[in-house]
Design a protein that fits this description.
heterodimer, A: 253 residues, mainly alpha, MetI-like fold, two-stranded antiparallel sheet, 2% strand, flat, B: mainly alpha, 12 helices, 77% helix
């Protein structure tokens, strides 16, 4: 075989590998997304019929077996509201610190590891912590306050990391110009970095709040648990899953 | 307030906020220990390592729970890691623009779906299906849990890995293509190795999500606290650590031995996730420094 045909053969093989590889990748993408599309479809088809104003705005009756989910919706709204009040300032401040103030030293590295770990702790463990710390130690009892504070700590890493990333993505020249014009650290942050990074920061806060609102395990022990399954599914975004509760509830309550 | 004072106050305030994360980790650990330690004192270690979990009779063998968690997480990992990474590569490198623009936000929304909802679907749709198709004695098995957890972990893996692949500088790809590599070779030999750190983070986060998942697992794994030994146990009910806490904490008498043991399970979960995260962080960190050394 001449040299050129050998090269041709190799090129053909390479092309074949590439085609097969791309087919594999496409198949994987389909395999991951198709079941999920199916899930959404199933929920919508089975659930939409049960979604009526009465279901949303009346109290449960008959030992939670009938009626509506109004208290659960209110509970979720209050819970996420208080949680946001706590987590947004704290998380954004910590994000500002990491993006702008923190020196590259051991403490900063420890903070990063701590954030990573906060993000990795299973949500039930937050529930246990909330029970031991807020409910028992601070004697808040099983209350919205205890639940909101627990969720706030759980959400903290999401808010911090997205805030930091949003601030870091603001071009450095903005900051340099601000300082060269005589702006102080805080002035640069408040007038230049924060307004520029605001969309990203809001994304982070919303992402965190959304995650917390859908979370169940951490508030198992810090709120009254009979409303729990209903309350978590009353998230505004996934409205389709609300009706399922009417069928799922009896055995668990 | 003078400007200089304000500067100083702000600097202190944001610093306190940053350091608070460390404080939270410590406080969480302290309070878990405080509530869980009595269990270690009162229950002998040999009992905790027993193969039976039967709290009503005061038998607290943690082994079935730990193995149950490991089995389900392992199953989910086997499903989610290859599928998730391949999907991420597809979205980042191969997919035509319109497909990519649809898939990316779609996957990100999925990462935020509440797991109770997926668990519910697991009960009403997935479990009966498996029960009939595979001819099992029950549809609520470790396999059902692994399957569900796999799909819970996939969006996390895809979205983080995709970001990492996206962040690889265009010049790397152009360089490889200019040297005569085709698209496929560029992906495997240049882009993926360059994004190694982020891809690893994606895998760790995905596994972490599967390991710590509570509600969905509690709903579909059947919750029988038996020792999962051998491959056959994949198709039998198991009970994970997370599900045990969630199911039993609501019913237990505060301050009882059972209560303290549940906190001990929590400590175990905390320590495992801590260990996984620390190892992951150090690996990612090392990969990054090596990459920086080579590139500089």
């Amino acid at each position: 075989m001449s040299r050129t045909t050998k090269v041709h053969a190799r090129r053909r093989r390479r092309q074949w590998t590439q085609r097969a590889g791309f087919a594999l990748l496409t198949a994987a993408a389909i395999a991951t997304t198709l079941p999920i599309v199916l899930i959404v479809f199933v929920i919508l088809r089975r659930g939409l019929a049960a979604l009526t104003p009465e279901f949303l705005f009346t109290f449960p009756t008959d030992g939670l077996r009938a009626g509506g989910i109004y208290p659960a919706i209110l509970g979720t709204i209050f819970l996420t509201f208080f949680m946001t009040i706590v987590v947004a300032p704290l998380g954004i401040a910590a994000g500002i610190y990491l993006a702008h103030y923190a020196p590259d030293n051991r403490l900063t590295r420890a903070i990063r590891v701590a954030i990573l770990n906060l993000a990795g702790i299973p949500s039930v463990v937050y529930g246990l912590f909330g029970l031991a710390f807020f409910v028992i130690f601070f004697q808040m009892g099983t209350s919205i306050l205890a639940g909101a504070l627990t969720l706030a700590i759980m959400t903290l890493p999401v808010v911090i990391t997205t805030t930091e990333e949003a601030l870091r993505s603001v071009p450095n020249s903005f900051h340099v110009v601000s300082v060269s014009l005589g702006g102080t650290d805080w002035q640069s942050v408040r007038r230049i970095l924060l307004p520029q990074g605001l969309p990203g920061i809001l994304t982070g806060v919303i992402l965190g709040v959304e995650r917390a609102a859908g979370e169940t395990a951490p508030i198992l022990f810090t709120r009254r648990w009979r409303f729990l399954i209903i309350s978590t599914s009353s998230r505004p975004r996934s409205r389709a899953c609300r009706p399922k509760c009417s069928t799922a509830r009896p055995p668990s309550c | 307030m003078s400007p200089a004072l304000r500067e100083r106050l702000v600097a202190v305030a944001v610093r306190v906020a940053g350091v608070s994360t460390i404080a939270f980790i410590l406080v969480i650990f302290f309070f878990l220990i405080q509530q869980g330690l009595p269990a270690l004192v009162e229950v002998p270690l040999s009992d905790l390592l027993a193969r039976r979990w039967y709290p009503i009779e005061g038998v607290f063998g943690l082994l079935p729970l730990v193995l149950g968690s490991l089995l389900v997480t392992l199953g989910a990992t086997v499903i989610a890691v290859p599928l998730g990474l391949l999907t991420a590569v597809y979205i980042a490198e191969v997919a035509p623009r319109p497909v990519r623009e649809v898939l990316k936000p779609f996957i990100e929304v999925l990462a935020g779906l509440p797991s109770v909802m997926l668990g519910f679907l697991g009960i009403v749709a997935l479990a009966p299906e498996l029960y009939h198709r595979l001819n099992l004695s029950t549809g609520l098995t470790a396999f059902t849990g692994a399957l569900l957890l796999g799909w819970i972990a996939i969006p996390t893996i895809v979205s983080v890995a995709e970001d990492a692949l996206d962040a690889v500088p265009r010049a790397y790809r152009d360089g490889a293509l200019a040297l005569g590599a085709n698209h496929w070779q560029t992906i495997w030999r240049v882009t993926l190795p360059a994004a190694r750190g982020g891809v690893l983070t994606a895998v760790m986060l995905g596994i972490g999500r599967a390991f710590g998942e509570t509600m969905a697992v509690m709903m579909v794994t059947g919750n029988a606290a038996v020792m999962p030994l051998g491959l056959g146990s994949l198709f039998q009910p198991v009970r994970t650590m997370t599900a045990t806490i969630a199911a039993e904490m609501g019913e237990v008498a505060g301050g009882s031995l059972h209560y303290h043991v549940l906190f001990l399970v929590g400590i175990l979960l905390f320590l495992i996730s801590l260990a996984v995260n620390l190892v992951g962080a150090s690996v990612v960190f090392r990969a990054r420094t090596r990459a920086e050394r080579i590139l500089s």
